[in-house]
Amino acid sequence: MLFISVTILIYSILIIFLLSARIKQDNISSDNKKTCTDHISVIIPFRNEEQNLLSIIDALKKQTFKSAEYLLINDKSTDFGPEICNAAITGLPQFKLLHLPDNMGGKKAAIHYGVLQSKYNIIVQTDADCIPQPDWLLNYSQAFLKPNTSLVIAPVIAQSTANGSFFQKMVALEFLSLTGVTIASAVLKSPLLCNGANMGYLKNIYMAYFKNGYNKTVSGDDMFLLMYAKNRKYNIAIITNKQGTVSTQLPENTFTFLNQRKRWTSKSLHTNNLEILSVSVLVFISNILIPVALFLTLQNGLLLIPVVIKYMVDFLFLLKYSVFYNQGYLLKYYPIWIIIYPFYVLLATAGGILGSFTWKNRSNTV
User: How many domains does the chain have?
Assistant: First the structure.
């Protein structure tokens, strides 16, 4: 019982530490002339995204930062995405459609191919089902003004509305928690998470990572690069303001959601940064212990104290970021979410480590 209490309390202390991060409320003005003089290469890998390509191309055309090239890399799509993309970018010299060679396959390969084909040293990547804000690249340009910046982390927000389904609310709440950890830990100079749908890095840093630390698992293009940068003490910057975000679509159903999370957790066995590994284990164990602690309160009511503390700090953490990103309507689902979450953590982790998953009509074995 002591182990359960101490573990849950240590987790709560971690969240309180993350709560101390101060995030900027102000947006950068596109009138600000203090921008990086370098050009930016934007990489968008895609597979079977015919319903999303027009939206992201339109959003990229509206970027206020104009010194950029956009590389859309087709990862062997089986739908009409490449044709739609080609028609949409005709007459737009800053856009280029690339097709992954026959001897390459998968998102990580598509990103690598895009980096090889890019013209500039500053690389920014996102996903085809995302929508960046108009000043998105302007934020990256200013982030890379900071001396010796090698990697830039930025937020990804789930496209959720108050009228969405119950399932979407649960997913959006979980996504918000991940976004909060991403931002808070980076602000506190100890980044624990990042999302490949919104990140930037220097091309020479990526090529060094590919040469020395590249991991050939199916997933993890973002986290392995982060761990590589952390292990080598590179300067990692964070974009916190809302104009630096991209919004992403929520999984359509439970099957897609679980496959996505299994894909994310499949890289956990290859974690090579002690800080990230320690926090991951702590979060997993503390959440798994919650149902055990609640059951054991029948024998010792004092076990309810660390559980209540955990629920309180988790709520405060979600409150902070739900207010910041105008998703406060999600909080009324928090009582249900905390019941479901421990079982979801167990299922997703076990599936990611032991099982296989399907993504974009491809079957993958962990």
Answer: 1
